[in-house]
Automatic annotation (TrEMBL):
Its EC number is 1.1.1.290. Residues 4-276 form the D-isomer specific 2-hydroxyacid dehydrogenase catalytic domain. This is Erythronate-4-phosphate dehydrogenase. Belongs to the D-isomer specific 2-hydroxyacid dehydrogenase family. PdxB subfamily. Its main location: cytoplasm.
Length: 378
């Protein structure tokens, strides 16, 4: 059994080694010829899996992406070749929700407002959107949920209307990129929609850049909403003009916590074992490094122990785990001398999720809030 996997998938060799011969390929770079005698292909979002890539893949039985998004898979082409395909749905939902929290705290600090006085609309209430909604609720924000496709199949969910979304102070996008069907998302935020918004409103783009019409944003000049952009149209070659208008700009790394990426590998491992009828020999807990007392992150969180929880102290705590300003400034520096966002994504430093370190907290109510925000508290 030959398994080809993207070299940026953490622990892939350790997971899949007992199933077959594992061969890494460089981030997103795989040719059809290389698939000639492969049985399994494991990608991330940068490999476009279409009829032309699959042409030589006549032995392929299983193709998986270690990501939540599947818009880089031509599923009809995979079905045509009778290849079982899958994704790692939900693997990095926590990481994206933590990114959104870091962005909200940054904007609140910079613009001098309290999040609990703001309304947030969440477009797409799946794995990511649900976690963002939980965080926003824990912060005391007013939450508008928009997901008509989910409302159509989930009797326990009711969706707001799009007009309500457009009234919210902050709009956070967590729907997949789709081109067809009743609710396509491509350019959901087109020129008409964007022009109906106020320049004081915020949009957080952390699903796929194509949900927003970049040119329409550029045409708005100073009237455009306040932007937090993690995902861009035409990645990896993004609009640097748009970047310069963003309040926060990052390199499609919202989901790039170590846990998020490693869960992607682990979910595909579980699915491949089930597909092949092979007994699992590994689980993620074996590989994720534990934090010890000397770790910088542990030391940083210790200073929180006896503080009261408020927006300022929460902001400091979140920065111990994830300082979004660092990602923003590093990205801008990188884009000043590069055309592509790929190198920065490939070499993204290790980022741990909020529950990687146990935080001791005295106050019972603060404990509850912090645990609703995803921290591990004792
Ligand atoms: N920036 C990053 O690093 C990451 C980006 N993503 C992106 O976020 C997307 C969402 O991820 P998950 O929550 O894990 O997926 P999910 O499939 O669990 O949830 C997506 C939700 O969006 C809803 N939806 C679809 N069309 C819609 C529309 N027109 N309007 C409103 N809602 C709509 C679906 O019904 C579903 O409930 C992924 O497809 C991916 O593109 C995901 C993870 C990391
Ligand atoms: O899971 C997704 O969908 C994402 O967008 C990932 O976080 C980013 O995936 P890569 O581009 O790093 O494969």
């Amino acid at each position: 059994m030959k398994i080809l996997y993207d070299s940026v998938m953490p622990y892939a060799e350790a997971f899949f080694g007992h199933i077959g011969i594992c061969e890494p390929f460089e981030l997103g770079k795989i040719s059809s010829e290389a698939l000639a005698n492969a049985d399994v292909l494991l990608t991330r979002s940068t490999t476009k899996v279409d009829a032309s890539l699959l042409e030589c893949g006549n032995n392929l039985k299983f193709v998986g992406t270690a990501t939540a998004g599947i818009n880089h898979f031509d599923t009809a082409a995979l079905d045509d070749k009778n290849i079982t395909w899958t994704s790692a749905a939900g693997c990095n939902a926590r990481a994206v929700a933590e990114y959104v929290l870091a962005a909200l705290l940054y904007l609140a600090e910079q613009d001098g407002f309290l999040l609990k006085n703001k309304q947030i609309a969440i477009v797409g209430v799946g794995a990511v959107g649900k976690q963002v909604a939980d965080i926003a609720t824990a912060l005391g924000m007013q939450v508008v949920l928009y997901d008509p496709p989910r409302a159509a199949i989930d009797a326990n969910f009711s969706s707001s209307i799009f007009e309500e979304v457009l009234q919210a102070d902050i709009i956070s996008l967590h729907a997949p990129l789709t081109h067809n069907g009743q609710y396509p998302t491509k350019h959901m935020f087109n020129s008409d929609v964007l022009n109906s918004m106020q320049s004081s409103q915020y949009i957080v783009s952390a699903s796929r850049g194509e949900l927003i019409d970049t040119q329409a944003l550029l045409d708005m000049n100073d009237d455009c909403p306040q932007l937090v952009m993690d995902c861009w149209e035409n990645e990896p070659y993004i609009s640097t003009d748009l970047m310069s208008r963003c309040r926060l700009a990052t390199a499609h790394i919202a989901g790039h916590s170590l846990e998020g990426k490693a869960r992607g590998t682990s979910i595909l491992y579980d699915k491949l074992c089930a597909f092949l009828g092979v007994e699992k020999q590994h689980s993620l807990a074996e590989f994720l490094p534990q934090m010890d007392h000397s770790h910088e992150l542990t030391a940083c969180t210790q200073s929180f122990a006896h503080q009261n929880l408020n927006q300022t102290s929460l902001s400091s705590l979140v920065k111990c785990f994830y300082d979004i300003e660092n990602d923003d400034s590093f990205f801008r520096q990188h884009m000043a001398k590069s055309e592509s966002i790929t190198p920065i994504r490939k070499n993204y430093p290790i980022r741990r999720e909020f529950d990687a370190v146990d935080i001791s907290v005295d106050d019972a109510a603060d404990k509850l809030t912090l645990s609703s925000l995803g921290f591990s508290v004792s």
